[in-house]
Write a structure and sequence with these properties.
226 residues; Immunoglobulin-like; 7-stranded mixed β-sheet; 5-stranded antiparallel β-sheet; elongated
């Protein structure tokens, strides 16, 4: 019944409330499917992980890429305790015996990421707007693909997605045809968020099940870069 507790603060030393923290065994670094334990900081930034077996642990935020769209951790880069970007530089937290409580860790995060907005429109091949089309997006990184999240277009097929500067995303769209033929998809577009990025146009053209990158998006697999 070991415990690890502490407080997470921002670059100015202020508490970061409601942020999702990850804890993993140090020996799992580099594993294809590392096992994480999760805990959410309270309103004052305090967190506790328990129960824990004896071992060496790494603490971090944003270790699995983009979390659910409005999660507090999305606004910070991948960071390991005590405030480094790489697992190899992290300081392990050690539970040496059963029931030990390792407390008072202050986990300081780097400055927040810059928010960007991906804007775009979904259209049919004849340029009719894809009214109420569903737009899906995933954050890509060198090591993993985040879960897929989505939003809905307006009546003119327009959409807006909040993302973060410097990260690469895969954006796709689909519509339900309503005529018994299922869904039709747009070929996904890969885009890196910058101040200079231009609006996207996603053209609905692929019958359901024929687009490999669409299948990857739905299954949470890393797509093949084109």
């Amino acid at each position: 019944n070991g415990r690890i507790s502490g407080k997470v603060v921002d670059a100015a030393g202020q508490p970061v409330p409601k942020i999702l923290l990850y804890l993993m065994r140090a020996e799992d670094v580099g594993a294809e499917r590392p096992q994480w334990t999760y805990a959410e900081a309270d309103a004052a930034g305090h967190f506790t992980f328990r129960p824990l077996a004896p071992g060496r642990y790494l603490l971090g935020v944003r270790l699995s890429g983009l979390s659910f769209p409005d999660a507090a951790g999305n606004a910070y880069p991948r960071t390991f305790y005590p405030g480094v970007s790489e697992a190899a530089q992290a300081t392990p937290i050690v539970i040496s015996r059963a029931g030990e409580h390792d407390s008072e860790h202050v986990f300081q995060l780097p400055p927040r990421l810059t928010e960007r907005i991906i804007e775009g429109v979904v259209v049919w091949p004849d340029n009719r707007p894809g009214a109420k089309a569903s737009v899906g997006y995933q954050e890509l990184s060198a090591s993993n693909v985040s879960s897929s999240y989505g939003t809905e277009c307006d009546e003119q097929g327009r959409f807006r997605i909040k993302v973060y500067d410097g990260f690469t995303y895969l954006v796709s769209a689909h519509v339900n045809t309503g005529n018994g033929s299922g869904q039709r998809h747009a070929e996904p577009i890969e885009i890196t968020a910058t101040a200079e990025m231009k609006p996207l146009t996603l053209t609905i053209s692929e019958p359901n099940g024929t687009c490999e990158r669409c299948r990857n998006l739905r299954l949470g697999k890393r797509p093949t870069r084109q």
